[in-house]
Amino acid sequence: MQSTIIKTKRQTTSNIMMVRPANFGYNPQTAVSNAFQDNDTSLSEAKISDLAIEEFDQFVAKLRAAGINVIVAQDGGEPKKPDAVFCNNWVSFHTNGTMILYPMLTPNRRLERQENVIETITNQFEIIRRMDLAHHENENRILEGTGSMILDHLNRTVYACLSPRTDAGLLDEFCEWAGYERVVFSSVDRNGQEVYHTNVMMAMGDKFVVISMATIPDEAERTMLYERFEQTNKEVIDLTIEQIESFAGNMLQVENTDGKTFLVMSEQAFKSLRKDQIEIIEKHTTILYAPIYTIEKLGGGSARCMMAEVFLPKKDLVV
Question: Which end of the chain has fewer CB atoms at under 10 Å, N or C?
Answer without folding.
Answer: C
